[in-house]
From TrEMBL:
One of its GO terms (molecular function) is hydrolase activity. Residues 36-71 have a biased composition (Low complexity). Residues 455-549 form the Peptidase S33 tripeptidyl aminopeptidase-like C-terminal domain. The keyword Signal applies. This is Alpha/beta hydrolase. It comes from Streptomyces microflavus (Streptomyces lipmanii). Keywords: Hydrolase, Signal.
Amino acid sequence: MRYAEKITHSPAARATAAALLALALGLTASPALAAPPTGAATKTPGTHPAATDTTSTRPTATDTTGTQTAGGPLGRYYNQRLAWGSCRESPDDTVGGDLDKAGVQCADVTVPLDYAAPRGRTITVAISRLKATDTRHRVGAILLNNGGPGGTALESPPYVREAMKEVGSRYDIIGFDPRFVGRSTPLDCGWPVSFTWFSAGAGRAGFDRQVALSKDLAEKCRATNASVLPHVTTRNTARDMDVIRGALGERKISYLGYSYGTYLGTVYTQMFPGRYDRMVLDGAVAPGDYGPRLLKGTVGENDRALAAWAAWAADHHAAYGLGRTRAAVLATIDRVMARAARAPLTIGTAPDVFRVDDTHIPTLLFMGIADDTDRSRASLAEQVSVLAEAAKGRPATPSPEFKEMLRFALSGADSPSGSAQMAIICGDVPAQRDPELYWRDIERIRAAHPVFGPLTENIGPCAFWNAPRENPTRVRHDTPALIVAATGDPRTTYRSSVTLHDQLPSSRLLTLKGANRHAVYGEYGNACVDTKVNRYLATGRLPSKDEVCVK
């Protein structure tokens, strides 16, 4: 769940995404060793390789050798001509207008809803392209994914080119909104909330409310989108990526993925050996750690990140009044949560009034601690000070940013985002179905981790979802990827990045020491990390050994 906090690059969009994807994968990589990068990719429409899906458990249109061919049922997708044009969809489409000004073009790629029935219903995947300007040294196309799942990347090429510095001019930078996300064919289950990552609260009553909510959300999705839900999966998004590769006329694609996007990148390399060039996986999640309980196993990292923030807030007591020591700040949070467990806190004034209870507060804290910059820490301190005022029964007026976050979390204002995110996760990996299993896990962890334990172990809609049609992807092929990870990442833990690195012997691990940060390259401002990633993107050569940068 990368909490897609990176990569919605405008401040307003970043605040909203931070509310959604912070949670999801924490939420924010290949065949037998692929051949080393070979330099500039050639663009020869009609000659791209067949779409090999070596680990699929579903029937595919194949020739007698078992390899999908561009001339078979999928040929019309791989050989389609893209109608590049303006990204602006309407006069008030500021995102599209900004992309147009930056020289980005947009197009829709047609893909099958069901790859097992390629002559059936089709959907579209929205993509954007910022073309290489250094055509003499062009490397090829690099696809982007900002995490989530459910995060968009259509808007990202200009920002990624800026992060890539000089090497950016050598790539066609391709943003895309995965199937059923953003400007692609949409999915909306008509939910009353925009995401579902809440805590079980202080007792059984809160957990029972979460069970009822999760069951209701799953039923709403079945009632409104039963025909498409089986096809809203990461494996199908990976298949879409390969169609994008073919439609672009590229023999191979490079890739930059954050958080959940690292899982998508891993899945692509496992399904399509030999179709990738340079792979950067930032804030990686090992496939074995990905599933409906994305936050399980992250409680220690989140406790430490919260404690580090509390120490910062204590140093700024004069500004926020939360306590003069780390312990005092954490005690303030305990008091706020205890008060919210007795009755919801009232935040804001009409018409924007929000009721915040003990199932919501851990989520709000979780959203705020994945970035240890002063700006992010100040934002969380402001939010906690508002909650503390409300806990005292005083008027509590949120900032515009906090108000937007509350609206996103506590209303269905962005139901499509939550619907797509949960459909992807539930469609990928089966969940435990017995609510009592979740409750026992919550009770076991509550004493040691009272703030985040009931969040990381809580139930969600996947417990009531139909079982996935395909088995989860597992790593069977090595991949020479560059994995970037911060030691204090509270979303996709450093341990998970190390696990993926161990599963991919040819990969290299670039560690940022001392940072409580999710998503580093091009986002955190660490010159060491950015320089090393850009060197790899420029040369295609991984470091000879794992490397370390410091905060």
